[in-house]
Specification:
Number of strands: 9
Strand order of the largest sheet: 4-5-6-7
CATH topology of the largest domain: Rossmann fold
CATH architecture of the largest domain: 3-Layer(aba) Sandwich
Helix content: 40-55%
Radius of gyration: 17 Å
Structural class: alpha/beta
Distance between the termini: 43 Å
Number of domains: 2
CATH superfamily of the largest domain: Response regulator
Number of helices: 8
Shape: globular
Strand content: 15-25%
Order of helices and strands: HHEHEHEHEEEEHHHEE
């Protein structure tokens, strides 16, 4: 129940959220490396959260991992961080703090530490959910904002159709790959046609 409430609150903040009740269930996700961040509880049934974190780090998952747990001793925090977590939050916690910590981890992972993500003349405010081009506000839909955020969190990376679909929509929902082209086209019209380059046979890359 708590996990469902957390997932609903994150989704209300514009994030695409997948929930697994155990480490074994999480292992069934395809392309888990495309997840921008993981929130892991320590007290999982079966494989515990610390063991799961060690496991995904060995598999090459390099994005932020945040531990959200009722266990708050300094020994448990040290163990979790040493296993590969980037932050450790003790329950109960306000949703606003959890979201702020996630956004901070995402900014640092992209090499940026300020309040906004920036790429050339494009800026994103993750807290206010606003976008700017050359300091002028740009009106983006929630999907367009998430798409632009994905590009800015992966600077210089070529993103394929599967990467983009996984970021924009829950994995359980099937979407036509043409959806990506439609959303890319709409975003280009708002931030500049040359801002997102097509890399033939591979996908798209943010250009600045």
């Amino acid at each position: 129940m708590l996990a469902n409430r957390v997932a609903a609150r994150l989704a209300a903040d514009g994030m695409v959220v997948e929930h697994a009740a155990s480490a074994e269930a999480a292992a069934q996700f395809d392309n888990f490396e495309s997840f921008a961040a993981l929130i892991v509880d320590i007290g999982l049934p079966g494989i515990d959260g610390v063991a799961y974190i060690r496991q995904v780090r060995k598999l090459g998952y390099s994005h932020p991992i945040l531990i959200l747990s009722a266990r708050g001793s300094w020994e448990e925090k040290v163990e979790g961080l040493n296993a590969g977590a980037d932050d450790y939050v003790v329950k109960p916690v306000r949703a606003e703090e959890l979201i702020a910590r996630l956004n901070a981890l995402l900014r640092r992972a992209s090499g940026q530490v300020g309040e906004r993500l920036a790429a050339g003349e494009i800026e994103l405010d993750l807290q206010q959910k606003t976008a700017f081009v050359a300091r002028n506000p740009v009106d983006l839909t929630q999907t367009e904002f998430r798409l632009l955020q994905l590009f800015m969190l992966r600077p210089g990376h070529v993103l394929g159709h599967a990467d983009i679909l996984d970021h924009l929509y829950p994995a359980a929902k099937g979407h036509d790959p043409n959806t990506v082209e439609v959303n890319i086209g709409r975003l280009r019209r708002k931030i500049g046609k040359e801002a997102i380059r097509t890399v033939r046979g591979l996908g798209y890359r943010l250009q600045w």
